[in-house]
Amino acid sequence: MSQQYVGAIDQGTTSTRFMVFDHGGDEVGRHQVEHEQILPQAGWVEHDAAEIWANTRTVVEKGLEAAGIAATDLAAVGITNQRETTVVWDRRTGEPYGNAIVWQDTRTAALARTIEEDGRGAIVHAKSGLPPAAYFAGGKLHWILENVDGVRADAEAGHALFGTIDTWLIWNLTGGPDGGVHVTDVTNASRTMLMDIEALQWDDEPLEIFEIPRQMLPEITSSSQEFGRTRADGPFGAEVVLAGNLGDQHAALVGQACFEPGMLKNTYGTGNFLVLNTGTEIVRSERGLLTTVAYRFGDAPPVYALEGSIAVTGSAIQWLRDQLKVFAEAADSEALAETVDDNGGVYFVPAFSGLFAPYWRPDARGVIVGLSRFNTVAHVARAALEAICYQSKDVVDVMVADSGIELEVLRVDGGITANELCMQIQADILDIEVSRPVVAETTALGAAYAAGLAVGFWTGTDELVANWSESKRWTSQWTDEDREAGYHQWKKAVERTLGWVE
């Protein structure tokens, strides 16, 4: 059974999983473990990087067991990760300097605003393709250097290392303090505000703006190449090639086989992330989208993308479940929303920590508007599903305007795609076809694909395109009048969220 499989470590915002895939891109086995969400104060979100590493060891061991294979049956392993989440650790001991700061964390909003207002934001945007925002890793790293005792001195002495979660895991898997490899890939580096998006290297100007010592940064590699081998005394119990590394949304684009310019995917998770392949052309958005690296395979030219990141979609359903106790399980939202024909005039904008693309308004906060005594919790549940879809329309409309590409199909993935009412509403609101693949775990699959391409397990992207197959497709059932009227009301609701936080 020698090397008939590829593995993928998928380290996400709420959990870590290890999955095994065969040559056809079908899942063979998996194991998944959740980790703690640490919320020290309003707007702060942290993870324990040591817990994530411990969970990674567990899911690898249990995932191999679930698949019924040994590590020696793996041709390679890929990694995909929650992007922007920032870890700093001591290379001598492997101990983190405190908790990781998560992508959702907003403690650096004032720093981002200052950089934007004093003119340095234009430099950051031109170099990195990203507007200054609390979302990205550069500001989080600056905060750690300024606020955690001893980190700046250790960084300048060469002892403190920075990484996003991919870097942290690769370093530990390849030996940690005993020769661990300190690398990241172009997709993760493109989310820091510190990388020149054309040169694909760390750039001195953003490093100076954020006061980052260059020596603490990892080497930037492609998304598909051999980075190193796992240690025989590690969770795999053998030397296995690590050969794929992609930020989660980039991995989903690859897993969806969106290799042609103009192909678009939307991942529905904690937030929503729409990524449009723009080919080898760098498209600079004028309407609030992010210019990012889609992927780079080996020595081939990088492929770029436009991205619209939406902070709160699936987590709004969780909020209705956990805080408001509207239903017991998130999946119950569909049955409840189906008991009404429409939203009853109710609009829900879940701007819990501000609005991301295309607005970039950290001063926004959530609203539920249009309520009357006629309304029930079913209307609120329906409005929550519509909010997921309207926020996606906000992004799709500006993608079309920025790129000049007319979209015909939206490929969807992520947990919420199991909610068929939500997918129908998405097709209704966008007036384009919505297509869900057979393999729902496109993020892990994309990491596996990147690793397999690097070692010749797959010979090229044509094989990956052939692996993709459709599970279901939705087409719009709304009239143009319904669509326009609904979106007009949505935009009015968004206006009500703005300027709430001074």
UniProtKB/TrEMBL annotation:
Residues 265-454 form the Carbohydrate kinase FGGY C-terminal domain. GO terms for cellular component: cytosol. Glycerol binds at R83, E84, Y135, D248, Q249. Residues 5-255 form the Carbohydrate kinase FGGY N-terminal domain. ADP binds at T13, R17, T270, G314, G415, N419. It catalyses: glycerol + ATP = sn-glycerol 3-phosphate + ADP + H(+). InterPro entries: ATPase_NBD, Carb_kinase_FGGY, Carb_kinase_FGGY_CS, FGGY_C, FGGY_N, Glycerol_kin. Belongs to the FGGY kinase family. This is Glycerol kinase. It comes from Aeromicrobium senzhongii.
